[in-house]
Amino acid sequence: MFRVPPRISRRRALQGLVAVLAVLAGLVWWLRPFGEPELTGDLTFSTGVRTGVYHRYGQLLEEALAQDMPGVKVRLETSEGSRQNLQRVAAGEADFTVATADAVAQYRADGKPGAERLRGCARLYDDYVQLVVPAGSPVQSARDLRGKRVAVGQDGSGVRLVSERLLTAAKLNPKRDITPVAIGIDTMPAELEAGRIDAFFWSGGLPTSAVRELSERFDIRLVQLGDLLDQLQASGAPARYYRAAVMPQDAYARARNTSAVATIAVPNLLVTREDSGAELTEQFTRTVILSRDRIGHAVHAAQLVDLRTAIYTDPLDLHEGARRYYRSVKP
Description:
Layout lengths: L5 H26 L9 E6 L6 H16 L3 E6 L4 H10 L4 E5 H9 L8 E17 L14 E3 L6 H12 L9 E3 L6 H6 L5 E6 L4 H9 L2 E4 L5 H5 L9 E5 L13 E13 L4 H13 L1 H5 L10 H4 L9 H9 L3
Parallel strand pairs: 1-2, 1-3, 5-6, 5-7
Antiparallel strand pairs: 3-10, 4-7, 4-8, 4-10, 9-10
């Protein structure tokens, strides 16, 4: 019987082992996007008030990140909104956040600490500014709010920024011509329902669950704000990020509006710092883009995240890690 010399058998066995290892390595590469090593560590994502769109978006994004970056522990931190979010990221208290473009522009214009370190990862969805009143209210425009008790958002929120600008555009002094109430969307609906305020401003994706739930138990109406756009845009450079928009009548099907509502919108940005790791930022950005449809089932606004426009993070420069991701998917 012919026998293979032991030296040849060992050589073939070694070759077979190398081949198996090569296949396994290829499989690992396929499972790990672009062959990148698994990231480990902790990161903090600053969201918003618990009943707002930012926080719900953050919860669903956390689930997606757990699948895509299992070695990274994500901690969500509620906040008052855009301005507090920017302060946290600039100070190193959070690693990523969402903030409106007008709030970012104002933060930079004011020369706030760490403003020069902020970087963009993606343009996300637009926030729609919403002025909510009881259905029987005589208020037909922001100009009719004189003498009213109006919830204008918390100090650290983007809502406060835009509501004060809108009131000024309506020729009202935000501190003297109304009674401003500094609360957020977590308490605004209950205060309106109880009659302790006459109206509230909110800026968020459509639909915002807190407003929708209010409309299902209490008769409300959304007030048009489109007549203030020209005055608003004339108020300075940060206001150039506002655009004309229309809230469809069915955005809040139970609200007592008989037609679509003209308003203004402003884009949201995914924000980090320049010293955030390039690999972490690249993978974080990838998850944000690829989880759009999954998150969009629960947060409708997330469906509007678009790879074609995500790269435009003005007024922030794009983070190098995010740039690497967009280059990797460029046709």
